[in-house]
TrEMBL record:
UniProt KW Transferase keyword: yes
Pfam families attached to this UniProt entry: Acyl_transf_3
Protein name: Acyltransferase family protein
Organism superkingdom: Bacteria
Enzyme class label: transferase
UniProt entry keywords in alphabetical sequence: Acyltransferase, Membrane, Transferase, Transmembrane, Transmembrane helix
EC annotation from Swiss-Prot or TrEMBL: 2.3.-.-
GO molecular function, one term: acyltransferase activity
Length: 383
């Protein structure tokens, strides 16, 4: 399989996730819950937080798949090439957003929140104190978590993939368990009220680590047949769905269980469903996720995510006297117009550079196929 092969269904997942983020930031679920239209137990299944979990897990899975392909086709991992590809995808739009947000805050709202802007420009908004938090910049926390993780993971992967694969898996599992235990400790500290500690990279990063674990499991050439059968069967998907929907049946008075532990369980469920989709490329579910509108929304989902933060911020509340952001209705209209234009005329040129860079890497590798990385349904025709 070449480095740039597309996996069906994943754009559909991205589309559903970014829709959930937009709906969450429009503040629809709160009034719906108050009106009795949606139960409190259902909200975590549809929330923007869960959507970001899906983005994280999918990202960890795909990045690791690409690293495995690169290692097996070229015999090495080019950290520089990885960073170039990552930068061309993420940095241009992110930097444009930060500049526009700065201009809006200074010239429209008459503010100069130097500390908040510094956190955003330095990719560290997930560590911003609550006293400096600005809703206009709020969604950038997730980009910070990803970038911090990917400063470390390619190096660790390059060092341990060939001879220490089991060590990689054990290390990732230890990171996931350690983040849960550390969260339990930190949330009880006096300073916890002043920060959104669940967004700190070494805590929120467990979602990305789960995606990495999944990629290592389904591409294990030694036990690939067993792994494929285990994760490709209907039982794996049903178990994933059950874990994803855990708040419907877990009833606990513990704040930590409801707000933290259930999130870890939900992430495991999301991972199982992603693995099932990867291994069942000809399934009806994948065909549904490949419906053209969903696929297109998934393609431009990064732009939607960034621009919804600019036009909607992270909630429907507006401060009196502020000229920006606009009303939620106007923000949605602007989002619908700007996101596709942004993808076509701003993001696409950088993506073209990224694709050319990837094709050059394929040519240098002689475009060697790697059958160990082809989803099971693509190998034996099973749906």
């Amino acid at each position: 399989m070449l480095l740039n092969r597309r996996i069906a269904g994943f754009d559909g997942i991205r589309a559903l996730a970014v829709i959930a983020v937009v709906v969450h930031h429009l503040g629809i679920w709160g009034p719906a819950e108050e009106a009795g239209a949606i139960a409190q137990r259902v909200f975590p299944l549809l929330s923007g937080t869960t959507a970001v979990q899906a983005f994280f897990i999918l990202s960890g899975f795909l990045i690791t798949i690409l690293l495995i392909k690169e290692k097996r086709t070229t015999g090495r991992i080019s950290i520089g090439a990885f960073m170039v590809r990552r930068s061309l995808r993420i940095f241009p739009l992110y930097l444009l957003f930060c500049i526009l947000a700065t201009l809006a805050l200074v010239f429209l709202n008459g503010q100069m929140p130097t500390r908040a802007l510094s956190y955003a420009f330095l990719y560290s908004y997930n560590f911003v104190p609550q006293t400096d938090y600005l809703p206009l910049l709020g969604h950038t926390w997730s980009l910070a978590v990803e970038e911090h993780f990917y400063l470390v993971w390619p190096l660790v992967f390059a060092f341990g993939f060939v001879n220490r694969r089991r060590g990689l898996l054990l290390g990732l599992c230890a990171f996931v368990i350690g983040s849960l235990l550390l969260h339990a400790v930190l949330v009880r500290q006096p300073f916890a009220d002043g920060y959104a500690i669940s967004r700190w990279s070494f805590l929120a990063g467990y979602n990305i680590a789960l995606g990495c674990i999944g990629a290592l499991l389904v591409t294990n050439s030694v036990g690939k047949g067993e792994s494929a059968r285990m994760f490709a069967g209907p039982g794996a998907f049903l178990l994933g769905l059950l874990l994803y929907a855990n708040t419907l049946y877990i009833d606990s008075g513990s704040w930590f269980i409801q707000n933290v532990a259930c999130g870890y369980i939900r992430a495991a469920g999301i991972l199982l469903m992603i693995l099932w989709i990867y291994l069942n490329q000809a399934s009806m579910l994948v065909r549904m996720l490949e419906i053209r509108p969903l696929r297109y929304l998934g393609t431009i989902s990064y732009g939607i995510y960034m621009w919804q933060g600019f036009f909607l911020t992270t909630g429907p509340r507006r401060v009196a006297g502020e000229m920006w952001p606009p009303s939620p209705a106007t923000g949605v209209a602007l989002l619908v117009i700007v996101a596709p234009l942004s993808y076509r005329y701003f993001e696409q040129p950088f993506l073209d550079w990224k694709k050319r860079y990837t094709r050059a890497a394929n040519r240098r590798a002689g475009q060697v196929a790697d059958e160990d990385l082809v989803p099971v349904s693509a190998q034996d025709g099973r749906a």
